[in-house]
Amino acid sequence: MSDTTTMEQLVSLCKRRGFVYPASEIYGGINGFWDYGPLGIQLKNNVRDAWWRAMVECPPIGPDGQPVQIVGLDSSIIQNPKTWEASGHVGGFNDPMVDCKECKSRFRADQVAMVTFLVNGDEVMTVGAVCDSPEVAVDEAMSSLNSKNRRRLEKHGDKLVSVVKTVEQLPAGETGNCPKCSGELTEPRMFNLMFDTYTGAIRDENAKTYLRPETAQGIFLNYKNVLDTMRVKVPFGIAQVGKAFRNEVTPRNFIFRSREFEQMEMEWFCCEEDVPMWYEFWKQQRMDFWCKIGLEGDNLIFRDHDGDELAHYSKACVDIEYRYPFTAPGFGELEGIAHRGCFDLTQHQTHSKAKMEYFDQPNNRKFLPHVIEPASGLTRGTLALLCEAFTPDEGRASKVFMKFKPSMAPVKAAVLPLVAKDGMPEIATQLYMQLREKHMVEIDIKQSIGKRYARQDEIGTPYCFTIDGDTLDDNTVTVRHRDTLDQERIPLDGVAKFLDEKITG
RNA sequence: GCGGGCGUAGCUCAGUGGUAGAGCGUCACGUUGCCAACGUGAAUGUCGUGAGUUCGAAUCUCAUCGCCCGCUCCA
Q1: A401-504 maps to which CATH number?
Q2: DSSP letter at A68?
Q3: What pLDDT, in 10s, does the model give residues A146-177?
Q4: Do residues A181 and A103 touch, judged by C-beta distance below 8 A?
Q5: CA–C1' distance A4–B69 (Å)?
Q6: Which nucleotides of B are covered by protein (CB under 7 A)?
Q7: Complex ipTM value
């Protein structure tokens, strides 16, 4: 089966069985937005709760044998817009871009240089070049030339002079040439990756605010509040789960890249000397987490960012990548663990004038903590679980079943009377009322037993408890196992304990 | 944003200018004895949306929205 087919079937199943619907569907949809159905939100909440549990409620044991300290937070989506100037998002998320009208290539305007070669003040040739800095532009331009043009320039020897301008610096009305095909480029155009809105009744530029493109900044804004009110000491972490918004150029691949998504981020504040140790610590912790909630080790990899891939403030960054069907045999990002140095606290201290320094009493010193940031996509994690669970099986009626780890399954168990008579529905209802006290369970009385098993397979319910004729005689029920189709009998009054052990054990 | 493909019932799809269809699913009633059983019946469609051509458009044209693939983007 092709991977495109797999995704199509998964998207279809998600719609059909109430995991994920296209947003605003009755109005024709809206690109890059998705709604989570009854089962989707259950699954997403399970991932979120597992993360919160692993971070805030029961954080890991640190290298010193003691549990590390992490507290929770839920900051506002809209903050003072100066937040995003300080963080660099107003600059960084607003890159002017140019497109080639001929070959349709797109470039960042500040990375395309026009190199004009002059001899005695006369222009000989102008060439476009892609470059990170003006210093390398001439070399880039030269190497992009064909041998004929290169000889034409080289014969001028020392008389040859070059002038470099990025296309941003060109006079108004003048456009550059494409570094690839020499075609005409468009004027630089802005691509705003941050959504903006207006706060308050007066709609002028002063009232402009932004929907957060990441949850992390809300943590930095509250770093001092937490420090002052929560009896925490460096090293410690602040964790947050919430929506973030990016006006992606091309939303793609189901819920993988959407314009509204959900993040689970933790900022770990520590002293500079210990940063490499904590970086390695969190790297391993985070990988263990994804395995623990049901992703196969083979489908997960670490990928270190190259130097030129790192953000300007970042000293190191590693992604945990998952082998999604649409990236296979390659991998796509699931979580990034970034070493952010003290960039963010420094920025906010500078822009806000608020003191962000930490006073280390035992050592009698003040410093700005450095930060390790494990930042994962909750919606991407949910997608990874959906992909991982999707298991075609021609041998069973549904042709496919969702093999969620029991602890992550949206529905933990279904209670099914074999037939709707002889008091079976009544016993089933009693069992259902008991089980729902602790777990997400369903009761389903209508239709044939096979049809009901098939439906539970498709939504990934790990256990079905069937009340049958024998139940009436000896108070036992059939347990039907999703993955193996095996059946066993257990006492009716042992069902709750059985389920507890399977879900939490 | 560019290029290509696509859009008909909840899902998968047939329907090339002349009555809106199939399978599956869903629901109801009957039946039921462990894997989408069976019988009977039912609901569900502005044929993505809007204009145009035509006596007549799901079908042809244009625009638009959305989805998929490839670029590009993803500080």
Answers
A1: 3.40.50.800
A2: P
A3: 777 777 777 887 788 777 777 766 665 566 77
A4: yes
A5: 9
A6: 1-3, 7, 10-12, 25-28, 31-38, 48-49, 65-75
A7: 0.88
